[in-house]
Amino acid sequence: MPQFEQVSVFGSLIFWSLVSFGLLFFVLKKFAFPPILNALDEREKKIRGDIEDSERIKEEAQTIKVELEETLKAAHGKAETIVQLAQDEAKKVLEKNLQETEAKVRQVQKDAEQEIQSSRNKLLQEVRSYTAALTIASTEKFLKKALDDADKKKLVEESIEQVIEELEKRQNN
Amino acid sequence: MESPLHHFEVHTLIPIHIGGLDLSINNAVVAMWVGLAIVAGAFMLVVNRGISPIPGKLQSVLELVLEFISDLVFEFIGKEEGKKYVPFITTLFLFILACNLIGLVPGSYTITSQVAVTGAFAVGIFIMTLVIGFSKHGMHFFGILVPPGVPKIMIPLMVPIEIVSMLARPISLAVRLFANMTAGHTVLAVLFGLALTAPGWVSWMPFGFTVVINGLEIAIAFIQAYIFTTLTCVYIGDVIKLH
Description:
A: mainly alpha; 3 helices
């Protein structure tokens, strides 16, 4: 087997392989490994940082979502309350207006009725007064003397004029 | 027919002798340099282009290798302690992988099929683990020879066993890589020899096998580099944690 027989080349093989290894080690350690290892470290850090950031952002988004949902829920509740209050208020106003209108109508009706009653009473009073006056005047004339038809007519005319004067007098008073 | 072990022979290309030492440059060394030049070239290309936050194809491959080895180191040595060993272990993995793979190119040479080379690395790593152990724990490092929970009466028996076990580590590390590379290439050489010498109507069979075995050898190149690296991490982790 040449690997055991060619003993004379052992020195050169060992020497050059160790020297070459040493040289390769020096070159790679000095120039190649540091930048590549740094790049790997930085990439690892960046990826880790990005993952942590995304986790954090996700948590923040979740918190914001929950807060928004709560705010939305509260706003919905508030809006419902406001609508309810407005409806209640509107109902109250409506009822109040209705009651006021009804009361007003009732008052107007009552006033009208009173006025009609008063006018009627007044009119009846007047008619009663006229009748009494007419009766008194007529009776007075009939009692004074027996008169012919022309006189009777004249007397009635006079009575009527007297009543009218009486009325005008009252009216003027 | 040529011996299937013939292609393991080393041929001197540029003779260099310094103080009685033969440091000649041979075909194995040149093949190794080509492999290492590809590795270093790939890294320097990526670095010179500028490391992009969004990696390209080559940068992705190199990052994958570094991350893979880093995870391996962190698993066996620990994250804090392991950080300083990542460059060494990664270079070791890339060195063995490049040497294993470049040897699969026809006409090239697998320097990891030389037991002298795998042995040198294994012994080097063994010595390194001893240095790390003593520098970290001082004389307490001898505690590694006594596994936890062993009754005191067993200690005289356990210590020699642990010493043998410790010494066997570099040997197994060296032999495993050398034997796997040698066996794979020998099988390939035998099959290819058969394909060349067999009659035309049957020669497609061994040739087909060489293609399949070559695919398998690529996988073995990765697996052996991975095993060598993993065991190195285990040994370093052992001396740091002391069991």
